[in-house]
Amino acid sequence: MVTWQIGALGFAAGLLISLITSPVGVSGAVFLLPVQLSLLHVPSPAVTPTNLLFNIVAGPGALLRYRRAGGLAGPLTRLLLAGTLPGVVIGACVRVFAIPGPRAFRLVVAAVLLPLGIWLIARAARPGIPDRQPLTRRTTLGLGAVVGTIGGIYGIGGGSLLGPILAGRGTPMTTIAPAALACTFLTSIVGAATYGLLALGTDGDIAPHWALGLLCGAGGLVGGYLGARLQPRLPERALRLLLGSLAAALAVLYLSQGIR
Q1: How buried is residue 136: exposed, middle or buried, by Cβ count under 10 Å (0-12/13-18/19+)?
Q2: Residues 6+ apart with CB under 8 A from 29
Q3: In a 3-state reduction of DSSP, which class is residue 129?
Q4: Which cell locations does it reside in (predicted)?
Q5: Is pLDDT larger for residue 164 or for residue 80?
Q6: Longest dimension (CA), the chain
Q7: What is the pLDDT of residues 44-62, one digit of tens each?
Q8: Distance CA 170, CA 245 (A)
Q9: Would you say 247 and 117 are in contact if contact means Cβ atoms under 8 Å apart?
Q10: 29 near 57, Cβ under 8 Å?
């Protein structure tokens, strides 16, 4: 049972994180997961499907705003989905059967967050460096499959990891943000359904914590809409530097806990 204090903390965390992350197309789940583990005490591996539930509830807030601005539908969205949807199913199976323990999971979290943080910081610190050529369709599809698998393990859907990579390869942020968030939303639905099916025949805390996931998602719904609405007014360099610093700090924390 979720107490009102835990529920209020989850709602506030979802709102604030989504407010900061949605303007650059990064799912708030990538930063909510450590909050769930450390402050909300969601057990592993149930924390991963709970995070996916957050994405499902929170996603429509930002997507609705981007749809009204005309930036949601496009070929990039369809291409990312073609890779990440099958990948998230594979990732869910790996998460349940290969790395269910909290120690191994923290190391996976650190391995995902650290490169993401370094990449965001580097791009923010050297904005004058010209972008590389955009990725080919085949490369984007393969990258989507890999990131979808990681997203299924980590509970972030996959799209948020692709955003910084695509940005560094010349894709405009106005194109990346709605495509990455749409990808995260749909792959989270598939991932959560996969965890639900696995929970039917597997022992342990695999099913999501519904009440907490819904409360965090409700906060993310509001924060995501406001963040997408504020996107044209926010400096991209400052946002990427903030996100990169937070991701790197969280990675170092979880790395230190995982190797103990």
Answers
A1: exposed
A2: 51, 52, 54, 55, 58, 155, 156, 157, 160, 184, 188
A3: coil
A4: Cell membrane; Membrane
A5: 80
A6: 53
A7: 777 778 888 898 999 898 8
A8: 22
A9: yes
A10: no
Task: Name which residue leads in pLDDT, 61 or 127.
Answer: 61
d(CA 231, CA 63): 13
Alpha carbon 216 to its chain's center: 14
Alpha-carbon span 191 to 195, nearest angstrom: 6
Cβ atoms within 10 Å of 89's Cβ, excluding its own: 18
Whether the CA torsion 131, 137, 139, 143 is positive or negative: it is positive
DSSP of 200-219: HSS-SS-S--HHHHHHHHHH
For the entire predicted model, the pTM comes to 0.78
Q: Are 176 and 163 in contact (CB under 8 A)?
A: yes
Structure tokens at 256: 């230190």
Residue 245, burial from CB neighbour count under 10 angstroms (0-12, 13-18, 19+)? middle
Return all residues near 198 (Cβ < 8 A) that are at least 6 apart: 92, 93, 96, 206
Contact criterion met (CB below 8 Å) for 26 and 160: yes
Closest CA to 56 of 175, 222, 214, 227: 214
